[in-house]
Design brief:
Blueprint (H helix, E strand, L loop, with lengths): L8 E2 L12 E6 L14 H9 L5 E2 L2 E2 L7 E6 L6 H14 L2 E6 L3 H8 L7 E6 L20 H8 L7 E4 L8 H8 L4 E3 L1 H6 L1 H13 L3 E7 L21 H11 L3 E7 L9 H17 L3
Parallel strand pairs: 1-5, 2-5, 2-6, 6-11, 7-8, 7-10, 8-9, 10-11
Antiparallel strand pairs: 3-4
């Protein structure tokens, strides 16, 4: 690992890692089959690099003053290194650590959470422009960024009430996804409801979170309006504002055991996405750890 996220301790040999009550950062530079241009596999490296321009200090947060310790364990290939993923989750569960993963495309969420512990008191929440509830996407591809939550529901045997999609607003949904949302296959708060009745939406999220002991949270950056993340391959109009996104995840983070940030495609001419991802990581640890 050539760079470490600013404020995190580098871990060169994770096999000997035995820290407890910590936050662990891992990069997952994986992209699977996509219909849109790729690039998110480069995000873990580039986000770490961009973090060098930040100090980890703001008007309300100072990473150096946190009682929690933060560790960057480098990258894991979620396809080829499943043994490492299992080892990682074993240590997280044993030592009461929390995990932040930087993707990669949204398929990494399935890879990461397929190795995670599940029970009836565990739920998954995802913020996304799209539902990612396809049974296959593209045609004849059954494990991709577009099938993540259909596969988690099926393979982890989840009840629909353990799954909450927040912020769906895209006009590129498939008919199958539309039918699943219409039939309440999962809990769903569309973007327009967050804007039209914010207090009621927040109440629904709070009530959902309170029912569970452990939350896995996945943040696809295309949940934001395309004006804030203009270089994403799947950027969509009429999405969340950064302020609303942070207000939403602040409700969820006290119960979160795992958080990922995915689909951070960027261009060299426009580094807004990288800046946002770095700031979002600091916001997450501010609300995830003892700071």
């Amino acid at each position: 690992m050539t760079r470490t996220f600013v404020g995190f301790y580098p871990v060169k040999d994770f096999s000997n890692f035995d820290e407890k009550n910590s936050v662990i950062l891992v990069g997952v530079p994986v992209e699977k089959t996509k219909l849109t241009p790729g690039g998110s596999r480069k995000a873990p490296k580039e986000i770490r690099k961009q973090s060098l321009e930040f100090s980890g200090v703001s008007s309300e947060f100072d990473i150096s003053k946190c009682k929690t310790s933060f560790y960057d364990i480098g990258d894991i290939d979620s396809i080829k290194e499943t043994d490492k993923l299992n080892q990682l989750w074993n240590k997280i569960s044993r030592d009461n650590n929390k995990l932040i993963a930087i993707g990669g495309d949204h398929s990494i969420t399935y890879d990461m959470l397929a190795s995670a512990p599940w029970d009836e008191k565990t739920a998954v929440i995802w913020l996304d422009a799209h539902a990612d509830l396809n049974d296959e996407y593209p045609p004849n591809v059954f494990y991709s960024h577009g099938t993540v939550f259909a596969n988690l529901k099926k393979d982890m045997k989840l009840d629909g009430h353990q799954m909450l999609l927040i912020g769906g607003h895209a006009y590129t949904q498939t008919s199958l996804e539309h039918e699943k949302l219409k039939n309440n296959d999962v809990e769903f708060i569309p973007t327009y409801k967050l804007f039209s009745d914010k207090s009621k939406s927040f109440e629904i999220i709070q009530n959902f979170v309170q029912k569970f002991d452990r939350i896995y949270l996945s943040i696809d950056l295309d949940s934001l309006d395309q004006s804030f993340v203009p270089t994403l391959a799947t950027a969509e109009p009429f999405g969340l504002t950064p302020q609303l996104l942070t207000e939403v995840i602040k409700i969820i983070l006290p119960k979160a055991k795992y958080v990922d940030i995915v689909e951070a495609k960027y261009s060299r001419k426009n580094r807004i996405v990288l800046n946002f991802a770095v700031g979002l990581i600091y916001f997450i640890i501010q609300n995830l750890a003892d700071c």
